[in-house]
Amino acid sequence: MALAPPWKKPRSAGPVVWWMRNDLRLQDNPVARTAVAEALTDQRPLLPVFIFDPRFLDRSFYGRVTDPNFEKSIKTRKPVDFSGRKTCALRARFWLRCVTRMKQSIASKGGAMLVCHGKPEEVLAKLPGGSLVVCQSEPVSPEQTDVEDQVAKALSSHCELWRKWGAMSLYHRKDLPFPLTDGPGSYTELALTLGWEDLWRSPGRTADATRIRPPVAAPEVWPKVANLELPGIMSDLVLNDERESLKFLGYTAEEIEEAMAQELPDAGEAAAQQCLEQWLAKQSEEPKDLQEPVLWDLPTGYGPAKGHDALQWANLAKPDGWLRISHYMAVGCISAREILSRAEESVNFNGVAHRLLWRELHRLNAIRWGRRLFWLQGPGRVERPWSWDSAAIEAWKAGRTGVPYIDACMRELKQTGWLAYKGRKTAGFYFVFILGLDWRVGAFHFEDVLMDYDVAMNYGNWVVVAEVDKSSRGAHGFKSVQDLAAWKKEEFEWKLSAEKKNDPSGEYLRKWLPELGKLDAKHIHEPWAMSEESRKTGGCVLGQDYPKPLGGPFRMREEEEEEEERRFHPNDNSGNRYTYKEFIDFAMSKGYDANFGKKCWEEARPVAALQEENEQLRQQLQAAEHQLRSLQGAA
Ligand SMILES: Cc1cc2nc3c(=O)[nH]c(=O)nc-3n(C[C@H](O)[C@H](O)[C@H](O)COP(=O)(O)OP(=O)(O)OC[C@H]3O[C@@H](n4cnc5c(N)ncnc54)[C@H](O)[C@@H]3O)c2cc1C
Hints:
Layout: E1 16-20, H1 30-41, E2 46-52, H2 89-108, E3 114-117, H3 120-124, E4 132-136, H4 142-155, E5 160-164, H5 187-193, E6 196-198, E7 202-205, H6 236-239, H7 242-248, H8 253-260, H9 269-283, H10 313-316, H11 326-331, H12 336-343, H13 349-369, H14 390-398, H15 404-416, H16 421-434, H17 439-449, H18 455-465, H19 481-502, H20 507-512, H21 521-524, H22 532-537, E8 567-568, H23 580-589, H24 594-603, E9 605-606, H25 607-634
Parallel strand pairs: 1-2, 1-4, 2-3, 4-5
Antiparallel strand pairs: 6-7, 8-9
Bound molecules: flavin-adenine dinucleotide.
Domain Photolyase/cryptochrome alpha/beta: 14-170
InterPro entries: Crypto/Photolyase_FAD-like_sf, Crypto/Photolyase_N_sf, Cryptochr/Photolyase_FAD-bd, Cryptochrome/DNA_photolyase_1, DNA_photolyase_N, Rossmann-like_a/b/a_fold
Cofactor: FAD
């Protein structure tokens, strides 16, 4: 007997369940629309469910939460404990608030929503037969897709699971002009492929540019409510009390008190939209702070166009962020395409499009790289020495490294869950190159504490900072972390110097490092450069009131200062003189390791020595000429 075509099949009468994940909004949510439409069309009841999965909250071994036996990974992988939670209590508190706001807005439409604590595959397995579960798939995270697989398995005998692309990305996968498994690997290439004419300078798009689907409206009509009991339900009594909720989710009394002491940004979809509207309103105002920032390590592109900083680089030098919207995006209180379309008329649209495309690149990379994104060698399979010095790791996490800028960043991050882009980059650079520590430990700490933690953005940016994203990037061939640190020290010093110039009075440092409060502006960025006497008067004895700088001391660099030591190599006939770093770069560009570069440096002669020899020769020549003249005179 021929099977009936799917549209003629009798529809199941079970409830429709919208399994909410990081799509906590109604506006521009195609998944919510699908679930609501399915329920309305077939007159099925609807139940939105949000599930706090303990695997994503608790302490865990790195990379093992959904694949404890590493069945999906390479056999040689070993469990590593980086002693951190997947989510600190502060982010959980923000998350809880976003979830309860969602519950309230669904209730205002006449619906109801359940909030549970448990593994989704165990919670949803208890749904009645014939249920349809609709969710937003999260392909950037192998851990999240593992959960989806496990839910599909648990439901396979009695229910159905629809995984939808949703609107977490700017582009729909069906619209992309390349397969998800393969695509442009660099930002510029991606922008050009998608039809952005020159996103480093202008937001123009070609006539045949890949379309970005317009945001979709929130569902107007709400289906009838499905009354279901599921395991791990968090009652309203619990949800209305933040301390009780955090306790329910497994946080200790100490963690709860620490999280409760911190002020939180407003939560939920309405707050996210308000944040965007306020930002848009501000864009038309005249910029107040026109001070030229020092952007040492940013790809500053082509600079301001007609006096206008279209990419808003200046904001990247400040500690406050720009749109300051990432924490809402991470849990899906607002979509990227909503932001893009609302910002279209803004004078700074270029900056918005530019950043959202960086986000898109990280999402596409994460999908393509899969589990390789989390390997020590990174997707670039870079082999180099690493350290796991636990004292250094703990000092960095606690903001006790003795390097004021790094410590201020790490304390702000730990206390508030926020750190500006430059702070994240510089603190990561110091961790990886100056301390030589395993980059994954740093990334895992950020995962624990960042309020806007997002797997693709966090790990994607960390592999770039650690230079393990591409095999062609530097830092190959070092034999020890000390050699690596020596190679990168100058670069780090330039970064610290840029921070000093951007914050000459040390305002940011004073805010987070009260023990340095009495130091003058000249020394607060580099307490190691003070005399013993001024350290005592400033109440900052190194090793006593404030740590000695790990990996330091560091020298603040002035643009006009005398150059680095340069040497010339006897076998090099070009007459050029190179710095230590240039010798190492040269060796590696020729396929040798860093030690070869070091050897060449040792063989090379300092320019200063050559100048001294020249001077001696000149004097000898002068003396000889003088002697000759006296002899000629005598004759
Ligand atoms: C080591 C490291 C870890 C990071 N971890 C995260 C993370 O977990 N979650 C996260 O959202 N961002 C992360 N970022 C990127 C960036 O720091 C934040 O997105 C940005 O600081 C958020 O502030 P904003 O909303 O004011 O950003 P804006 O400068 O206003 O940018 C607007 C939006 O564009 C996107 N965006 C901007 N810069 C980047 C970037 N470099 N990469 C990807 N997307 C970007 C974000 O969604 C951001 O909200 C990380 C960066 C580094 C260097």
